[in-house]
Fold these 2 entries.
Entry 1:
Amino acid sequence: MALILLVGGLESILLAIVLFGSVLIHELSHSVVAKQHKIDVRRIILLPIGGMSVIDDFAVTPATELKVSIAGPAMSLLLAVLAYIVELSSPFPLIATIAATAKEANAMLCAFNLLPAIPLDGGRVWRALRERRKDFLTATKEAVALSKFTIAILVLFGIFLAFLFGEWGILFWNGLIAVFIFAGSDMELEAAVFKSASEGITVGDAMRSEMLCASGEENLLEAFELAYTSKARNILIIGKRNFRVVSLSAFENVPRSKWIATKIKSLSKVPPRCEPGENVLSAWKKMRASDVQLAPVIKNRKLVGVVTESDIEQLIYLRKIALFA
């Protein structure tokens, strides 16, 4: 009996590893292709219903999005075929069972991700193909509309199976998938509007010439008083060879009793440098990647101003209202 329980427990563990491993390999396939095309991959998220590779969508061309999107389902299909071969050829029941599970898991993973619904791979493939004839925003709107149609089909199919055959579990999972697609497609549309609204806006349009500067030797209390007077949230530290930025939010991590003894340069970070003619979306992405909210603007090796993440977002928001309201 103990041996049976041990084998059963081992089989369950191996099956769980196969399932999560299949999802991980699927997402890694997206990431590898994205890296090959010099697209930033920030992280991979594993979810109970699948996974997600968080990449820099703003830098993706239609051809690249097509390659990145199809990489995951293609790998899942390949794994399903390999698992099927192992299932047929293995003389060991345990290995055959695990291979059968891997086959089914990867086949379902491939089919699920090819649903024509963004943010799934199938929806991204559809958008990439449509973008060959239309602009990015229009292609995204069409992909979102197709996603809503797919949601309706999934829910209606789940209701049909539930009431006619008592398959309430399928209705539950279809409903969960529908919620995921609905939320994801709305986020994709918002990102597309954000990207489209940023076109034609330069850092010079969002730049401000007035800025709060410091040497870095000031303590936190002195810097806070300066920031409070000037109503600034970020302080630009001008050094002999470089710039650094300290945010007032970093002050919250230091006890008030240590403000006088702590210099602001100890809390500062190196910001990215921007140019006046640079697109605001490029500057915004660099600040997000560097985890700073302010960047110096340099022209002909001279500091001409600063641009903040919030200023860019506000300008794009106003542009979005003007163009798409």
Entry 2:
Amino acid sequence: MNVAYKKILKAAVAAPSGDNSQPWQFVFREPNVLEFHAVPERDNAALNVDQSGTFIALGAAIENAELEAKALGFAPHTRLAEGDTLAIMTLTAGGNCPERERILQGGIVLRHSNRKAYTKTPLLPEDRIALVDAAGDRKGESLTFIEEPDAMASVARALTTMEEIALSNKTLHKLFFDSIFWSKERNDAGEQGLYIKTLELPPPAQLFFKVLRHWPVASVLARIGFPKVVATTNAKQNASASAFGVIRIKRYERAGYIEAGRLLERVWLASAARGMSLQIVTGLLFLARAAQGSTSTLFSGAERETIQAAYTRVREHLTGSEEPFLIFRVGYGDAPSAVSCRKAPAIVTAP
């Protein structure tokens, strides 16, 4: 495999994934074909409904790969596949990279999750235009913004229901704390999971997290209302954004999830290229999908009611019939204290 193809796959693995799970593998077929394969077992099994989180991450990886390929002078052609192979990208020489695409490609190395508080500065009109332009005009997916302060405060509190449930539900508590690690060396090695410093907790809270990861401690605190305190505090931080961006889709199946991931990545790259901060805050929507159906035993009846009430609160601030699929907060703030690193792409070479 030549250097250019390695650069394309390096860009692909710079894509975001839930808890930095990196649920992908790549196959290179001579002379010019790249295959994208999903590895869903790396994702949070409890919340990865329909493997949607995995497909979102692969969609973002495909978007990065196409942008990098164009910047290197290729004309990439990507088609979605079936079965274990998610997508097949054929690279031919002689492509061009319009300025708008080159700006997005430049954002790949700048794009990181920023969980800090933002400055509450209203979204500048030129930035809103740039984000909408990056999303493009799509048939099956759409992007809208929630910017009115009272609506943002309401949505911010609803979204932190994720933290409230995760700190009081034994299964989710384990999944969350199992994904966190404290070692900079592990982060530098690109291991899956969340490096504690990327959570932007003050040092005392980092130490408290080491205690809170023990379920007997967390369960006692849950009984005295500690998860609600955490959720209220985090809601204020979420509301410091300039806007909430909402991505909605028409196809709740594999292709729709992939396209949602591509749209999300384009918006995120545009924001990064403009020096803005962005964080995915879509956990509530995954909770809501996981809680649907009478066969799910993950949640108690009271938890289901709490999740549904929070979801309804978010939905009240959106017009139209399409349901929210992904939510992020975007705004202006200091650079993150730490960023999640990636492993080098796992590549299989085949004839």
